[in-house]
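User: Continuing from earlier, I have the next pair ready.

Assistant: Great, send them over.

User: Here they are, in order.

Assistant: Folding the first of the pair now:
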Amino acid sequence: MWVIELGFSPDPVRLAARPAHRTRLAALHRDGVVRMAGPLAGDDGALIIMDAPDRETVEAVLAADPYLATPGVELLHIRQWQPFLQ
């Protein structure tokens, strides 16, 4: 499993791009790739929990999401996570 942390600024371009990003995340969730995703309180960032075999796969999924190239969105961290409860 992988934890992806995004940071947000209040740029209105980001807000306009968010619906397409959420639609994409919902499709990845249906496919079992994204387990959970959502904004942090205060809407200054978000977490995505992804089930992927390796970091290269995570990076490929993220690279295919135009939201991450949108002004106001910053990829802060990609960290492997080993949950013991699900």
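And the other member of the pair:
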Amino acid sequence: MSVPDIRRLQLARLGVGLIFLSNGAAYASLVPRLPEVKAELGMTNAVFGLAIAAFPAGALAAGAAAGVLIRQFGSRLLAWVGMVVSMAAILAAAAANSLPLFIAAIFLAGCADSITDVAQNHHALRVQKLMGRSIINSYHAMWSVGALIGGALAAGAISVGLHRVAHLAIVAVLILAVTTVGHRLMLPGPEPTEATPHEAHTHGNGRVRHPYLVLAMLSILAIAGAIEEDNAGSWATLYMSTELGVTGGLAATGYVAAMGSHFLGRITGDWLVNRLGQRTMARLGGVLLVLGTAIMIVFPSPWTTILGYACAGYGVATVVPSIFEAADSMPGFKPGTALTVVSLTLRIGFLASPPLVGLIADASAIRWGLLVLPISGLVIVALSGVLSSRHETWDVPVLDK
């Protein structure tokens, strides 16, 4: 198979970036409107948490099929189709007039998001391999930009009194236009199928770990990172509006702060990880997550909440991309196997977090449900040793199978 020239690769990089941008903006456009849906459908905090959990449930249900679909139809087409279905489902969720319809729409959105997520990351790694340098954090930065734009536009729509269905219909048209451009710029042709063997490495006096143990640790790290991302989307706006008394579009500022700091962390992520290593960045990020969210829980106010979510967003910005890279290059597994497992277990964090926080919130307050954030930060600090101390090579000792 011929290697595309540098201009074609640059266009493909832009195309994948537009898919990441659109994927980030899609669900983020609905998030600030969720308190309206919750109120209109008369949901309790626990029911709301369970309803929102339909999104990661759908992602888990569809994620296992993503690899087969990619091999059958290609990541380029699959990413575009996934975005079309995502926006249709999100628009249906905004218009839902009953709880079952809302849950069904959210479930379908989760299914489509999972397919898009695997397809866009698969294509991103394909472009990265051809370019010969790390660009994965910049792709995730584009996702954060999309989430920031989606959340900010939603806050603006709320401020001017635009109905959520009209707001999301406009967003759907814009996102599908951007996604279509991205699809046309991505690499054509079938997916590469050649396997690259992974060799086990041992360095220094480090303790040798079994590949399955390393994969389990990476999966738990992914769950901890997912908890932060889900919490900002599911609970930040509701917490600020119901327990801190923030009104109108300003109630979305906690979520916007999380997504904005996510972007800053990821746009600088490749530079920092290349210099400090995945392990150090994860430890520093986990500490920042613990400190920032602990302050917002102990001293509840709009400003400490914005600060806490900003610290959380920046703290975990490079964690999930580092986990994906580590899994993809991990010795002891066939290419793509560890990445698929980590991608699926990542969704467990999204699935478990909303109902857990909702149950705690109904028993006490949303504020105490937010304790999952500093706890996830402690998990990241504790397990960061499984990541590489350098960017270029896998240096966690792994036992030969």
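Worth noting for the second one:
The chain has two domains: 1-189, 206-401. Confidence is low (pLDDT under 50) at residues 194-205.
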